[in-house]
Amino acid sequence: MHPSEVLFQGNRQPLLLPACDHYAGSEKLMRKSIVLQQELGPVFDITLDCEDGASAGNEEAHAHLVAELLASGDNRHHRIGARIHDVHSPHFARDVEIIAGGAGAEALAYIALPKVNSVAEVIEAIAFINGHAGKAGRSDLPVHVLVETHGALRDAYDIAALPQVQCLSFGIMDFVSSHYGAIPGAAMRTPGQFTHPLVVRAKLEMAAACHAHGKVPSHNVTTEIKDPAVAANDAQRAAAEFGYTRMWSIHPGQIKPIVKTFTPRLSEVNEAAAILHEAASVQWGPISQNGRLHDRASYRYYWTILQRARFAGLTLPESAAALMLPTPVHPLEPN
């Protein structure tokens, strides 16, 4: 049996997505981001932004541009999604029709839904998206939901439970603003974003909701764009203290630090490979290595380490690479 079958016993494994979600709005930045993805490979996603990227009065033309870029041969890895206008916007329906139902729908990695207020709104939006995506030959188009309202946070567990939802993404600026001054503006950035009780609570509840349903929690932006070290520090704290496995980028200089921070260290990869290699040799029974007991509970942890390392483009030790065979059917849902 494949290790994943042994360790998860028929249950769906936690979903994996690239560690960085890079947002780009203007045509210039969208095209530059696609070129960078071609250079680095699919180690980061690109979200083409209709909500904040389109200038007033130019919303439909912007949606057509997004569809054009998705359908382009430059979209080599099919790891480009789109954030559309929120469900209450007059531009929501047209965005869906053009992007999810257009020529680029086949290559669309996901739709990002902003500013939802409840699980009911998400369900209704998904049904609408499916109607147009289905006409373009797509079924079960992945959906990423931004948690940036009180209602979305309240319903985070129910939203994460929806089969088409892959990821919940924390929108810190809208969330803080929705408190109308009760949370200081300093809580939109470090260190306040990691210490203010209401923001900490929101981040932890959203991350817990994702992990309860095997989905991906994505951390909010770092607004400091001149110093990539700030984004790296935020990513490290988001991962180590809050359980996030993905993070937004809003500047090309943030992409590599975010990816590096969320990628397992080589020492972790080697340890995981050694433990799982020995476990496989005893048909996944308990083992003792370096004076520590390991069984299937810890094997699942180390298996995830190897999956994340491979997803980040690391070369795995030979013993670990052998365990990965056969190659998973879908790179985001390893068998």
Please, could you describe this protein's structure?
47% of the residues lie in helices and 14% in strands. The chain is built from 14 helices and 10 strands. It has helices spanning 3-8, 27-40, 59-71, 92-100, 119-135, 150-154, 156-161, 172-177, 197-212, 228-242, 252-262, 266-281, 296-311, 318-324; strands at 20-24, 44-49, 80-83, 108-113, 143-147, 165-170, 216-219, 246-249, 287-289, 292-294. The radius of gyration is 20 Å and the shape is globular. The protein starts with a helix and ends in an 11-residue tail after the last helix. Mean pLDDT is 93; it is low at 327-335.
List the helices and strands and how they pair.
Blueprint: H1 3-8, E1 20-24, H2 27-40, E2 44-49, H3 59-71, E3 80-83, H4 92-100, E4 108-113, H5 119-135, E5 143-147, H6 150-154, H7 156-161, E6 165-170, H8 172-177, H9 197-212, E7 216-219, H10 228-242, E8 246-249, H11 252-262, H12 266-281, E9 287-289, E10 292-294, H13 296-311, H14 318-324
Parallel strand pairs: 1-2, 1-8, 2-3, 3-4, 4-5, 5-6, 6-7, 7-8
Antiparallel strand pairs: 9-10
Helix pairs in contact: 3-4, 4-5, 10-11, 12-13
Largest sheet: 8 strands, parallel, barrel
Could you tell me the number of beta strands? 10
Oligomer: single chain
Shape: globular
Distance N to C terminus: 11 Å
Tally of helical runs:
14
Q: Give the helix/strand class.
A: alpha/beta
Question: How confident overall, as mean pLDDT?
Answer: 93
Question: Low-confidence parts, pLDDT < 50 over ≥5 residues?
Answer: 327-335
Computed Rg: 20 Å
Lateral arrangement of strands in the main beta sheet:
1-2-3-4-5-6-7-8
Topology pattern, helix = H, strand = E = HEHEHEHEHEHHEHHEHEHHEEHH
The helicity comes to 40-55%
Strand content: 5-15%
